[in-house]
Amino acid sequence: METATPGAGFHAEIVARLDAGPSSRPERVLHDLDGARSAVPPSEFTTAGRTLWEHLCRTVPTVYSADAVLGLDAGGIIPALAISLASGLPYKLAWKVRVPLTGAVHFVEGHANRPNVFAYGIAPGHSYVLVDDEVTTGITLVNLAQALHRHGAHPVAAVCLAEDTRYQARSVIEELGLPLISLTQIGRDQ
Q1: Cross-strand bridge partners of residue 82
Q2: Residues in contact with 6: Cβ distance below 8 Å, sequence separation at least 6, in sequence order
Q3: CA–CA gap between residue 112 and residue 97 (Å, rounded)
Q4: Do 70 and 101 contact (CB within 8 A), yes or no?
Q5: 14, 34, 52, 141 from 113: Cα distances, Å
Q6: Cβ–Cβ under 8 Å, residues 131 and 71
Q7: Mean pLDDT in each 10-residue stretch from start to end of the chain (190 residues)?
Q8: What H or E segment, with its residue span, contains residue 132?
Q9: Which strands, in side-by-side order, build the sheet including 127-135?
Q10: CA torsion sign, 6 to 26 to 143 to 176?
């Protein structure tokens, strides 16, 4: 088990995943907002959203003109809602369900048992802040960003609660010109 950088104010840790399938990762990141260990007070939710939004604004000042926050199914829902509340930006969610809606953008979360993900109502020319709970390899966010580009939409930044530094996801994501904002970092080099 590895824990967040001391003094980060937000705790995340890597734990073994007991139900890992053949295509899923053998570990999972648990964090203060997932409700796994204990109930989450609303103040922690709003503080995390505000902290991420403020850091994002300092790093990417043009984020004020983004059209929406786009959170990934399941883990990205909580931080996407927190950032939406802190920023006043509307949110959208990408789901692992294929339905007949317009503006569909398909991408793959390769390490998941159900890898196909769909974002709906994506408008060409609109800009999106991409949000997930944790970033490990960065491939899912890269796949989403590339799918948005193909659709004519513009990802402006990637945001997560916990960044696992063992796999250098930051460099993979930033190669696309997307800054990565994380609330805390975990991993061997922390």
Answers
A1: none
A2: none
A3: 14
A4: no
A5: 19, 20, 29, 17
A6: yes
A7: 48 90 83 95 96 96 97 95 98 97 95 90 98 95 98 98 94 96 82
A8: strand 127-135
A9: 91-94, 68-72, 127-135, 154-164, 180-186
A10: positive
